[in-house]
Amino acid sequence: MSSPQRDPRRLDATGDRTRDRTLDVTLVDLASPTEERNPASAELDTLDARGMVDVILGEEATVAAAVQAQASSIAALVEVCVQSIAAGGTVHYLGAGTSGRLAVLDAVELAPTFNADASMVTAHLAGGDGAFVTAVEGAEDSAEAGAQLVREQCRAGDVVIGLAASGRTPFVGGALEEAGRAGLPTALISANPQASLASLADHPILVDVGPEVVTGSTRMKAGTAQKLTLNALSTATMVRLGTTFGNLMIDVRPTNAKLVARTVRMLVQASGADPQHAAEVLEAAGGSVRVALVALLAGAGPEAAREVLADHPRDPRRVGDPAGIRSAVAALGAMG
Length: 336
Hints:
12 helices; Helicase, Ruva Protein, domain 3; Rossmann fold; 2 domains; 7 strands; five-stranded parallel sheet; alpha/beta
């Protein structure tokens, strides 16, 4: 008796008509600590809400130390990124799923904080921008898509940083391999100490976070590790490029009332000036935080501050004063 033919437009379990799909059971090597079962959460579903939260946060608390263990590798990559951006190059993040979304988040938030733009740091998500809010099936499995992205988007002097919790994502692998062929500096940020793609990276940053609370759910500890790594990498890079004075964001874009107030407060914190006076100097400086800050610190007028700043631009090679603020103030003081 022949088997009944299945309707390729059959109703699925939700009542929607879907095209018949043949399940691809090709086994993928998932060897990674994040794919192992975590003894601490083996009975997770038997706990009450407080018990679950305690287990989850207890595991998350171990991630910072794992990232700290990679501090030297992260610092080495910072220097590569600084050199690239200072020379007019771009740092490219590439990833899929959670890793790619975290990359996008880090890149876009550099704009309001450090007045950076996509020519400095940009992110590419497997499946395109739409994959940020809706999963794109199979996007991460195309090594050619990653390679093509590098061919079309990257140029000499750029840096290519792949993010892959598993350390094996084909999209990231294709990008790293193509970047290597083009002679571009490469890095891999992964939560797998044995990442198969590590050999394609000049700077492998392999954070050992151990098993996830929910087995294989790399949006958890692995995602936290990637976020911490990117925070350290991009922030240190931007500071080395001269976008802060101490820990104050002197290149922040005052695009709303909160940021305008923060700018004035920052000038007060840096100089000890009266808030009203700081606001008046900022206005006289045409809204330039750098000019206003030098004027306040040196007790000079905005025009004099602007002129001396032109002789002391941002320069990551100026150790101890990449922003040029201290050098400008000293120059004004020497003028008497």
